[in-house]
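Anyone else keep sequences and structure tokens together like this?

Example one:
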Amino acid sequence: MTCYAYYPNPMKDKEKSEEFNRHSIDVVEYMFKDLASLTNAVINTISVRLGVSRDLVHDAVLLAGLLHDLGKVDKQYQEKPNHGFSNHEVLSTTAIRNIAFKLIKKDSTEGLFLDLLTLPILLHHYVQADPYKHIHYIISIKKERIDVYKDCIDQLNEVINYGLIHVQSDLGKKIMHELKNKLSKFEIEIFLDKELKNFLLSNVFYPHKPAIMAIAGLLNEADGTIAKMNRNIR
């Protein structure tokens, strides 16, 4: 048994499965090693332009890469992975926001950190063109938590431990520790907060939207490249 980040289409013969922990860590490694100069430039620019500490911006980028597929550890995906992982990015986003929202200082730049971390995850399959889809999905399924599949526990712990080694801020460490604590109950609550809903549905320009899109671009590039490398049979 395993925990999948990808399960090949049975109609194709040139693909192989990819495990959750390998994909998650490989995406971060690609962002911070192969794309190091670009990733560092994005982090430094966002830090200066938004007045958020470099450590927080670094951790927003790192954890967005590391946890972008968190929703895939849910039983509904892992028990029938050949059905696909549709809408997993919504579960990932709302689960992480539920954890981080309780830890941030609402009257500080940590509020910006929350968006810099979670919104690129929501957008990492370029679904920003249809934000209503996400709101409808969250409301329609009446889902309150990710039910962690038992075979994903060890892999998710490996991903969390990797994060704990590489995060640079106290807040990043707190988020990782809290996620680890959730695993003892085999469930991670999801949460659609007012700020997320307003961001998705409002036509108002948010000053930090370009920063969010820059991080989403990095994540999409890494996610797509790693997927091709790990899933294709040469």
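And example two:
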Amino acid sequence: MSHHIIEVQDLKFAYPDKTAALKGISFRIEHGESVAVVGANGAGKSTLLLHLNGYLTPQEGKVRIGDYPLTRKTILEARRTVGMVFQDPDDQLFMATVFDDVAFGPLNLGLPPDEVKDRVYRALATVDISHLSDRPPHRLSAGQKRRVAIASVLTMSPDILVMDEPSAGLDPRARKNLLVLLQGFKHSKIIATHDLDMVMDLCERTIVMHDGLIMADGPTREIFADDALLAESHLEKPLTMQTCPACSPPAGCHPRLRPSQKT
């Protein structure tokens, strides 16, 4: 299933002001993997993600999406393979109704109207927002907008799902619902996020970026157990791996949850 594979080789990218966002990174993601990309602000995560479906093309190095090297000539094929959910759903929701937004992609592929309708209804049902199909997106909550953005990607039937900060701005209930939703997806998933507890729940592999470079790439729990690596990358352990200094229970007890102490 080579169409599910992403391979990046010595990728470099600088913005017009000469800021080097990516300084030569390489990795390969196989079919069915769920991979987190983590790092502090400015590490290069979003710039990397924008290369994975052609919003940016390599200045130096190579990106391969399935059977195709990513070039200006193969961008459309890459975007059929890789579904991108942006950090801000408002960046990809612009139609009058939820239905229209979710239908936009397959309509532009030239699919028959009946097939488009079927894809839209299935995608809305998958993310549990069928009841919102006639609502204007700008009237929705942040969590609902996130689901609409995901549905708009699912209608394209991508082989790989790429998400930039999917839990940003969500309240605890919306975050939990999103987590359950993503756990049920069978796609290959690449998730850039500061939510390291979500990474623990979703991703067996983690890539750590810092200053445009890959600092580490390996099993998530091993990565998050490396105190020196986290400190160098300006990251903190997930709450579920932090121990309580007062009562020293097994990992998972966070200081905010510790029992009150008697004096």
